[in-house]
Amino acid sequence: NSTRESTAVELPSVHAFNLTNGLELLPRVVPLLNSQQCEFHTVFTRIQSTLCEQALYDKLIMELDHSILMPLALGQHVYVYDVCSRNKKRGVPRAIWYGVEFVRYALVYYWHGKDS
Q1: What pLDDT score was predicted for residue 6?
Q2: Could you please report the per-residue DSSP string of 76-104?
Q3: Distance CA 62, CA 13 (A)
Q4: Verdict on whether the full-model pTM lies above 0.85
């Protein structure tokens, strides 16, 4: 509908810092974003790699709060920052390569159905 498209508002990106190790990046990322002169929101989230390791997926989802779920539901760009990683070969924190990817899968499944 052209009326709906013309009234759509571009929502700012959301930058989510994973507690506690993602906080290390806060002093670097926020000034960088400010220098880009773009609108953004900073939030904090808790995606625990231990829950991934122990296959406690329901708890992983239940610990997510509105500060990250609502932007995802609205289709905003959400960037998650974390620096902790026990897997030096992969070089990416487990909370990112496992946790964030599982959250993405689960939300698409529940919000849009298993055929999406």
Answers
A1: 47
A2: --EEEE----S-TTT-S-HIIIIIIHHHH
A3: 23
A4: no
Phi, psi of 73 (to 5 degrees): -65, -35
Tokens representing residue 76 in the block = 């905003």
* Burial class of residue 55 in the structure, from the number of CB atoms within 10 Å of its CB (0-12 exposed, 13-18 middle, 19+ buried): exposed
């609108």: which residue's tokens?
39
pLDDT tens track for 53-82: 999 999 999 999 999 999 988 888 999 999
Do the beta carbons of residue 41 and residue 12 sit within 8 Å? yes
pLDDT at 104 over 50: yes
Structure tokens at 56: 């406690």
Residue 47 amino acid letter: I
